[in-house]
Amino acid sequence: MKELAQRLSKRQNESKRLPDLSFLIYANKALERLHYCGLPQAYAEFLKECNGFQGEGCRLYGIYPEQGNFNDIVNANRGSGDFSNKTRIILGENEFDYLLYDKAKEEYQIIDKNDKEVLEEYNDLEEAIIHILKL
Amino acid sequence: MASKRHYTDPYEYLRDDGEVNPVITILDALKQKEQDSKQIQETEQEATLEIEKATTPVDNTIESQEKEYETLIKDLLSRSNSDNEHTRETARNELKEYLSGWGLKYVNNIKYYPLSREEKHIIRMDYYGTIDEPIKIPGRSKSTSAYLAFINSPYKEKLDNPQYDLDSSPAWNKFRQFPRFRKIEKQMLEQLKAEKVPPHLIPQMNAYDYADILYRAFKDTADEYGKVRIFNGARRSFVKDFIRNNEPQFRQYLKRIRVDDRYTEALIEMMQKKGITTDIDVFDKQKAILLLEKYKEDNLLPPEEEISEKISSKQLEFIKYRGDYGKIALLDEKGKPLSGPTFTVHHKIAVKDGGEATYLADVNHFENLCLMVDEPYHRLMHSLDKTEISNFREAYKARIYMQNPHIIFWGGISQDYQIHYDYSQDERSLRLMENNYKWIAEHLSNIKPLPDIDTEKQNGVVYNNKQSRKQKKQQQKQQEQQNTEKKTKKRIPNKKKKTEDATIIQDISQEALPQRQKADNRKARIFKELKQAYIQKRQEKYQINPKNNPRKVAKIQELIAALYQAKKREEEAKTNKDKLPAVIYKDFLESLNR
Fold first, then answer.
1. What ipTM score was computed for the predicted complex, to two decimals?
2. What is the CATH number of domain A2-132?
3. Considering only alpha carbons, which residue of chain A is nearest residue B71?
């Protein structure tokens, strides 16, 4: 997982700053305050090595608390309609699907944006990230 | 005395009800104004310096107008995602009012025909051109149990020159609607032979099974993530086609938004060569050459390695691997790597919106795609998306559509920030599309009806990995039979499996319609179920045994086929046969306006 995060981090053209540990905590608190599911531990660890990713229509959300920045995980979940709630949080997307973490089932899901059908389920975050990033 | 670092919550601007704190927004607005005024001063200075270049006074007003639009759109998007219902609805209504002025249209209540999971999988493979490493964990794999049992078996029967009848495979006939998959059909057949797949398995294989076969065929080319690229994909092909047809206009757009010329050159080169808009490396070639020569001296590169002005991607990767990319990267005035806007590709209409785009391949046709700046325009296009399913059957959706069907690049609200291209006048595109429809009409319509595949069985295996009720009953019967056989200890001759009557015309023939129609798959499914029920009743009533009364059964089949053909002819007569095939989006827009 760490290797994948470092590889993705190197691919970024812009120098994306890694989030402070405190920012991760604040992001988690903001998600809970807004009645969304908190960050899964594995994804929080991923963000410490790679603060999100963007490319070829694919995106993994990071910690960018500036207002209106939709690369930020909190802002992105606010803008996802009813995809995310107390038990589900969106971690990324591509042109067709969302990458979602289901807290109740403890699994990562690939969900069709059009009709919300669950297309794939993964127990491992790395596999789910590789699926959503169509690089 | 060391000063303590005070962290304030960066998300403080979000209140518990999702509203944005007004005090902080005022401060943000003041900061933004200061930044804008600085930027305006800078742009004014730049404008005076660049008077001899292409910019005219009108461009400056367009540029400032675009920035205002951008700010407005970001504000509306932010408010339309508020948890406060009143704020959200107000923002959405405001957004809807602006749309027509921006060349967009909000349509509510579009009938939506959901696709099967396999169809979605095929569309994504065709679009991206890649296959992920198949899931091998039992119980989670989407492959059929028959295929899994075969592929995981250590002992495989030797086959002498097996002949695969791909016409008998419903799944592969869906793949065949896409020209890119037809091109790799030979490689797929070779891999089937290499894997010693028995021909009788072909009709039972689903899209995930074929994806596994294709993955194995191209396994040697797998990348560091385990993905395999089987072809270029619709996305990359579209980007290449776009830059081939619209390079001057795209250059002009990048100039308008003040992207560095060096980045522009590198971006256009990548779009032409690979069809990608990210991972753009902008570096000093001379410095790179010197660095590579130094590697050669230090024996880090083999002596026979050719170093020229055309730096290969492998050489560049090696420089990055050594951690020396920073030495050759070109930087802007602020010392940051050169960058530009992030682009994404938008599907103008999703598959089977309102019954249009009945061929799966039409979804990924260039006419249906539009290159777009990600933030905030692509987000705007999806800001009012909604799908509602009623009665567990019919689905209706709301979406924003573009009014002009010929837009292939959207970089802003103003016409100067958009690029239009009419694919119905593009000879190459027309030829490809017409060839595709002809091929489908010729090949997929000639498939003879085959014994019906038990979809409940297939679906039960694929989606639940559990036995369906029918399967459980059959298993119970078999067990009871075995138990009675054991008791009587009689040698019962091996009964041949009863082949189910070819009473139902396969789904393939529905899809192999010679012309585009507004086919309703759901109605076809209900029609199929009714037919099945009718035949069963007939059999029960007259105790028709297929072995004893094949003629009667054949007559019934003919009747049903004739009824179905008559219905098809009626529907065909309604459609306009003289329409050019390459007008999917235009037809769709016209249907909305009726």
1. 0.91
2. 3.40.1580.10
3. A68
